[in-house]
Design brief:
Blueprint (H helix, E strand, L loop, with lengths): L7 E2 L7 E2 L21 E4 L3 E7 L7 E9 L7 E6 L6 H4 E5 L4 E7 L7 E12 L13 E10 L3 E3 L3 E6 L4 E8 L8 E5 L5 E6 L3 E6 L5 E11 L2 E12 L9 E3 L3 E6 L7 E6 L10 E6 L6 E5 L3 E6 L7 E10 L7 E10 L8 E5 L9 E5 L8 E6 L4 E2 L4 E3 L3 E6 L1 H6 L4 E11 L7 E9 L3 E6 L2 E3 L4 E8 L7 H4 E3 L5 E7 L2 E6 L5 E7 L10 E6 L7 E4 L4 E7 L4 E6 L4 E7 L4 E7 L3 E6 L6 E5 L2 E5 L6 E6 L11 E3 L3 E6 L4 E8 L4 E4 L10 E2 L3 E4 L5 E5 L11 E4 L6 E2 L10 E3 L5 E4 L3 E4 L4 E4 L7 E8 L5 E8 L10 E6 L12 E6 L18 E4 L5 E5 L3 E6 L17 H4 L13
Parallel strand pairs: 4-10, 12-18, 20-26, 27-34, 36-42
Antiparallel strand pairs: 1-2, 3-5, 5-8, 6-9, 7-8, 9-10, 11-13, 13-16, 14-17, 15-16, 17-18, 19-21, 21-24, 22-25, 23-24, 25-26, 28-32, 29-31, 29-33, 30-32, 33-34, 35-37, 37-40, 38-41, 39-40, 41-42, 43-71, 44-45, 45-46, 46-47, 48-49, 49-50, 50-51, 52-53, 53-54, 54-55, 54-56, 57-58, 58-59, 59-60, ...
């Protein structure tokens, strides 16, 4: 078969290049002249040998030299082709012109051929025309070739897959072909898991094995090397689960919890271990780790699992945690088992102790003992208390015994009453790892105490109901046995509430009597003092006292009257020495009111901006408090038996009612009563019973409609509206117990505001200007001026009226008589400039009245002149009026 030449060359003086094949047309002349010699062609060899190693990318080459003689002028055309499979004519035979008569053919073997020997011919053409229709004699020339492809490094198969069942090993053999000149190879495994490994090799084989493994697909690469030749062999290990399934390492339970007390070792707990189903040949290793504490956890492998123990021998109370790690051989998965250990107190914590000291508490109740108990092992201990009032007589011992304690009596006496405190007792074990335990001893002190009594002064020979104010009376189990009033006889002792007692007494001699409630421990508590004074014969007297008087208070302990004098900006004192009256004063700028402290040991005086407590003897200031007090037309400072002194507070005309607390020495607003509306314009006006139980409060008189009269009892200190619809009054005078109240010298009412009787003077030419009520409420004393009091010659009269009659039986009180005074307390020069109404007081025995005005202090006996005849003014009430329907809670006579 004629080949298609890639190149055609004319060998002559000129070289022509043209394409072979296709086309038509002339290409360079006809036949040579007959006389020309024939063309001769020859090659330098008849055979060539080629060789390379399998897999080489560059093939073997050889050259053939063609020589052409007698080339005609028209030139010749040359080319070459190959037979066989080892050389491609188109790609593997190339030639080049060497000279005018020679060309060199380069022959290259095909690459990529497998191992073996390949043969064929190289055909070299010399043509006289471009289409090679006429060859030169003896052509084409034939050159035999032989190609030898030698073996390289290779494996069979080129990849390996080992299939197995979980727990069963696998094996595979790989054939290895070596390059010429090599007698062996090296094999190295890269990547993959350790379950695939090289188990052996020969000069021409490689053995791969797999370990028993869990299901899954695993891979590795084995690299074979011979000289510079490298072959990578991929290996795949495919493991299938057995028909019954498979399991990894199992440990049960999944966690352990222990508990013990300090020093103990609790019972061992067992873990069950199930090995992996793929039959790992080695056992399970066990490791221990701690999150808190150390050394307290121990584990021992058994045939079927593990025994786990913990110990609190060196642990203090708390919660500790650790873990156990069970690690099987590969490919098993490690299992972690958490372990928790709670260690409790080695000592039992004693329960809290509460000691409540009341009036019935005796010394034995201040001591006790608590057991000291071990929760585990026996041990010694010591104890301490963090407060000095709690004593521990025996502060050490061993468990199984007890710890005694006692309250120090001296410390208890110094402790604030109605308070509580606590001490912490700590018991420390002798074993260092055992935690100390603590318990509290709560001590409360609630001993009944007396704060105030009302009244604070009694008159010998005169019976009196005394109000006792304090705290804790309800807790006294035997009040009659524990209540004391000095040497005073006590009758009808009555518990009103926790802070209020009453009793009746008649002092027989002058003395001071401490009033208290004793207790079983003999501890001192606050007490009040009752003063028994003798009746005083003051005698009639006129004591000059110039200035505008606002309020007056009588001090029965010192036979003195204290008067606020706004005309001289002073507190004036008139003191009786048994024969004469002595007058002195202390300056009080902008003085307002005066009153007596509830124990009679301080004089209270207010100015527009301050309250002062004065010593009754020296008139020196012992305490002062900045406070605004209403000027207005107030009538004094009045004290209730709960220790509150009531005052008008404010800076202008619109005022309010507040009180001074003698225990805390502070001013406070009255208890809130949102439901009660009050109007104290230029007021309020007040009056209180001498025993401090009842106070009457008058609201503004210039407000329309008229505001109701108010009252309060010391028990609640809440203002109430009177049930008799009474309104404004200028002056209110009360008996010692509040059972009789005189309003503006017009009428007398009882404690329930029932009308006892009206005040009507028998002589219409006299008008009532002031008055007082007898301490026992049996009489009222009315000071009356004649109508011509400014320029006339008539003297004032003191009328005495009987107030002991029962309410509702008569309209007017009987007049028992009168006595004529020797002087006026009021100036008489100007009916408008002189104060018509003097301030009034009465001695606690009821024998003397005191009226102080802007010129004189009048001291007068209440005894009527001998031969005085009573004037009856009783107006019988119609029978149908004698019986009246009572409103709920009101006494008879209250409408």
């Amino acid at each position: 078969m004629r080949a298609c030449f890639s190149w055609l060359v004319s060998l002559c003086l000129l070289v022509f290049l043209t394409a072979c094949g296709g086309g038509g047309g002339g290409g360079g002349g006809g036949a040579a002249p007959a006389s020309a010699p024939p063309v001769e062609a020859s090659v330098d060899k008849t055979a060539i040998t080629l060789a390379y190693e399998e897999g080489t990318t560059v093939g073997s080459t050889a050259s053939i030299l063609l020589t052409v003689k007698n080339i005609p002028s028209t030139g010749v055309y040359i080319g070459g082709e190959a037979t066989g499979t080892a050389i491609s004519s188109a790609d593997d035979i190339n030639f080049s012109v060497v000279s005018d008569s020679q060309a060199s053919f380069q022959v290259s073997a095909k690459t990529g051929l497998t191992e073996g020997t390949y043969t064929g011919d190289i055909l070299i053409y010399v043509c006289l025309d471009i289409y090679c229709t006429k060859n030169a004699p003896g052509t084409p020339l034939k050159v035999k070739y032989t190609l030898t492809v030698t073996p390289t490094l290779k494996v069979s198969p080129t990849s390996v897959t080992i299939n197995s069942v979980s727990g069963v090993a696998g094996k595979a053999t790989v054939n290895v072909t070596l390059p010429n000149g090599y007698s062996g190879f090296t094999a190295t495994q890269y990547g993959g898991s350790p379950q695939i490994f090289i188990s052996g090799q020969t000069s021409n084989t490689l053995t791969l094995e797999t370990k028993p493994w869990r299901s899954g697909t695993y891979g590795a690469t084995v690299q074979l090397t011979a000289g510079s030749r490298v072959v990578n062999l991929p290996v795949s290990y495919v493991v299938s689960a057995p028909p019954g399934g498979e399991n990894d390492l199992l440990v049960a339970p999944g966690g352990l919890t222990f508990s013990a007390v300090e020093g103990q070792t609790p019972a061992t707990k067992t873990l069950a271990i199930t090995l992996p189903s793929w039959g790992s040949p080695s056992d399970v290793s066990i490791g221990t780790g701690y999150y808190s504490g150390s050394g307290w956890l121990n584990v021992v492998r058994t045939q079927t699992g593990a025994n786990v123990t913990v110990s609190a021998a060196a642990l203090s109370k708390g919660t500790y945690s650790a873990y156990l790690v069970f690690t099987p051989s590969v490919p098993g998965t490690a299992v972690t088992v958490p372990v928790s250990f709670t260690v409790g107190d080695g000592l039992a914590t004693p329960a809290p102790i509460s000691i409540a000291v009341t009036n019935s508490t005796v010394s034995a109740a201040l001591s006790g003992a608590v057991p000291v108990t071990s929760n585990g092992v026996a041990m010694g201990w010591t104890a301490t208390a963090d407060q000095p009032w709690l004593k521990l007589p025996a502060a050490s011992g061993t468990t199984g015994g007890s710890l005694s304690y006692t309250v120090d009596a001296a410390a208890l006496g110094a402790m604030t009453n109605f308070g509580s405190t606590s001490a912490k007792v700590t018991i420390t074990p002798a074993l260092s790892n055992v935690t100390p335990v603590s318990f509290t001893v709560q001590l409360s002190k609630s001993l009944a105490e007396v704060h105030f009594v009302g009244p604070y002064a009694l008159v010998t020979g005169r019976p009196m109901l005394v109000h006792v104010r304090g705290k804790g009376f309800n807790s006294v189990s035997d009040l009659a046995a524990q209540f004391t009033a000095g040497s005073l006889p006590v009758a009808d002792l009555t518990l009103v509430d926790d802070g209020h007692l009453t009793f009746k007494t008649t002092p027989s001699s002058v003395a001071t009597h401490p009033v208290a409630v004793a207790n079983g421990l003999g501890l001192a508590t606050s007490s009040a003092t009752l003063n028994a004074v003798a009746p005083v014969v003051y005698g009639d007297a006129v004591v000059p006292s110039a200035g505008k008087k606002r309020t007056v208070v009588l001090d029965p302990l010192r036979q003195a009257l204290y008067v606020t004098n706004s005309g001289t900006d002073a507190l004036t004192r008139h003191r009786f020495d048994g024969t004469n009256w002595n007058t002195d004063a202390v300056a009080v700028p902008s003085v307002v009111d005066v009153g007596m402290a509830p124990d009679g040991q301080r004089i209270m005086v207010t100015s527009s901006g301050a309250l002062r407590l004065l010593d009754p003897t020296t008139l020196s200031t012992k305490f002062s408090l900045a406070q605004n007090f209403a000027g207005g037309y107030t009538t004094g400072i009045f004290t209730t038996n709960n220790g509150w002194s009531w005052l008008a507070t404010g800076t202008g005309d619109w005022n309010d009612l507040g009180y001074f607390d003698h225990r805390s020495l502070t001013m406070k607003p009255r208890p809130s009563q949102p439901e009660l509306s009050t109007m104290f314009y230029s007021g309020p006006w007040m009056s209180a019973s001498r025993n401090g139980e009842r106070m009457i409060v008058t609201q503004s008189g210039s407000i329309s409609p008229a505001q109701p009269l108010l009252y309060l009892d010391a028990t609640t200190s809440l203002l109430k509206v009177n049930p008799a619809n009474l309104t404004f009054g200028y002056q209110v005078f009360m008996s010692d117990d509040g059972s009789r109240v005189m309003f503006d010298q017009n009428e007398v009412r009882d404690q329930s505001f029932g009308l006892v009787g009206k005040v009507r003077l028998p002589d219409s030419t006299y008008m009532a200007v002031s008055g007082v009520v007898a301490p026992d409420g049996s009489k009222v004393y009315v000071l009356a001026y004649p109508q011509d009091w400014v320029y006339g010659t008539n003297m004032p009269r003191l009328y005495v009226l009987d107030a002991s009659v029962s309410p509702g039986l008569q309209e007017y009180l009987p007049v028992l008589g009168y006595r004529t005074m020797t002087a006026y307390p009021t100036c008489r020069s100007d009916a408008y400039g002189c104060n018509l109404r003097p301030q009034a007081a009465i001695s606690p025995d009821g024998d003397t009245v005191f009226f102080v005005g802007d010129v004189n202090l009048i001291v007068a006996s209440t005894a009527l002149p001998a031969g005085t005849t009573a004037t009856t003014q009783t107006k019988p009430v119609a029978p149908k009026q004698r019986v009246r329907k009572l409103a709920p809670g009101l006494a008879p006579g209250v409408r």
